[in-house]
Amino acid sequence: MSELSDAAIGALRTVLGAENAAVWVYGLSTAYVTDGALKSAVGDACDEHRAHRDTAEAALRGAGTTAPPAAPAYALPAPVTDQGSALRALLTAEHDCQVGWRSVLENTDDVGLRRTALDGLTTSTTRSTRWSLALGQPAPDPFPGRG
């Protein structure tokens, strides 16, 4: 069992919620993303979000606390009806994960957890850039994870 501050546990709970939502949004998006290369990237990203979700759950268990369960569904900022709206929903999910992982990074001194948070923040930012470019938009915020 590792010692984590209340702030670190709160940040882990937040990022776990964001990762659960991301897995759900990626699952939904597979029905709308039709471009072959993008569809493959969506599948790979969903696998990465599952791994990050599992890591956050394990960290919470390791700290002696219970991980909150995933919701059966999540609210979207707009309906998903085609590839473009699916990619915009993915951008939102990635932003939420960036905010969550940045919060973990800022609220723990645990080296392993900081490494995990940095990986989560970096991979989420990379995916945000990919989805933005696929939409013909400029790359997202140069300082990822700001609320």
Structure description:
With about 150 residues, the protein is mainly alpha-helical. Helices cover about 65% and strands about 0% of the residues. It has 4 helices and no strands. The chain has helices at about 5-30, 35-60, 85-105, 110-135. The model has no long low-confidence stretch (mean pLDDT about 95).
Descriptive key words:
globular; 147 residues; 67% helix; mainly alpha; 4 helices; Ferritin
Topology diagram in text:
Blueprint: H1 6-29, H2 36-62, H3 83-106, H4 111-134
Helix pairs in contact: 1-2, 1-3, 2-4, 3-4
Protein structure class: mainly alpha
Q: Strand count, sense and closure of the main sheet?
A: none
> How many DSSP-defined strands?
0
CATH fourth-tier homologous superfamily: Ferritin, core subunit, four-helix bundle
CATH topology: Ferritin
Rg estimate, integer Å: 15 Å
Text of the CATH class? Mainly Alpha
- The count of helical stretches stands at 4
Question: Outline, from the CA principal axes?
Answer: globular
Give start-end ranges of low-pLDDT stretches: none
Secondary structure: helix percent: 55-70%
**CA-to-CA gap between the ends?**
30 Å
Strand content: under 5%
Quick structural gist:
The chain has helices at 6-29, 36-62, 83-106, 111-134.
